Amino acid sequence: MLSLSALAFILLYGLSFGLVLCLIALGLVITMGLMRVINLAHGAFAAIGGYLAISLMLHQGWPFAAAVPAAVLAVAALGVVAERLIYVHLYKRSDLDQVLVTIGLNFIVIALLTMMFGPNVVRMDLPSYLRGNVNLAGRDFELYRLVSAGICVVVIGALWLIFEKTTTGARLRAAVDNRGMAQAMGMNVPLLFSSTFALGCGLAALGGILAAPMLPIEPMWPLKYLVVVLVIVALAGHGNITGSVVVALLVGLVETAGRYLFPQSGSFLIYLLLIALMVWRPDGLLVRRKTA
Q1: Is the separation of the CB atoms in 72 and 205 below 8 Å?
Q2: Cα separation of 285 and 236, whole Å?
């Protein structure tokens, strides 16, 4: 039987980890689920955001509160450039072409990051007001995790409202399904696609920055955590924001529980869970099964 203290640890750390994973995955949900482009270079934008924020704080002396939004905006702007120069040519290409090009972008980014920052992990130096612990449910809980979880909740809630309760999501789906008709109705489809892709890249960057103390920034980051993010997107269902939240939280809880209860082999539990869920619900965890 788990003690209350152990249960509190798993819940608190698992949920905070899951929320950060969700934020990263939501960027891919937008570009891959809603825009229907297989962007396997999504992790590269997250890694660039982490490196940029750390560099601004370490080398330029920027405070954390200024470096984070600056890095997110810079990566979003980079996303616009990448979308106009590269991704715009992939929208009508085959899935295989999209996979090959975006995987290639990953390797280019990995090589550039290694050349610029070296092959080792780069640590984020948190400001004094984000260090230390708070007592929750009888456990000491890292203050930074609490703050990052709060930011994730706010951003995820805002995204849900935008895409589920406004016409933005409907306009984007309409533009993807029938670009000609959308343009005939007066939509600026290139601007819509660029801004949506920029949003996805910005979310990746924000997630990469917030996750830096949990998923340390290193050149191989774009590939190292790609599988978990992709599976979250797949299990969530096609462009399903609510499903992404549920799956990411489940992944965070199982990952934390596995490492806490089985330190030597706990990291394998998450992959066993993901395989089982993919077999059980291949169309998505919250997607209703089709009846014969």
Answers
A1: yes
A2: 6
Q: What's the chain look like in SS3?
A: CCCHHHHHHHHHHHHHHHHHHHHHHHHHHHHHHHCCCCCCCHHHHHHHHHHHHHHHHHCCCCCHHHHHHHHHHHHHHHHHHHHHHCHHHCCCCCHHHHHHHHHHHHHHHHHHHHHHHCCCCECCCCCHHHCCEEEECCEEEEHHHHHHHHHHHHHHHHHHHHHHHCCHHHHHHHHHHCHHHHHHCCCCHHHHHHHHHHHHHHHHHHHHHHCCCCCCECCCHHHHCHHHHHHHHHHHCCCCHHHHHHHHHHHHHHHHHHHHHCCCCHHHHHHHHHHHHHHHCCCCCCCCCCCC
Average pLDDT over residues 205-224: 92
- State percent of the chain over pLDDT 70: 91
pTM of the model: 0.89
Place of tokens 């395989």: 275
Bridge partners (DSSP) of residue 139 are 136
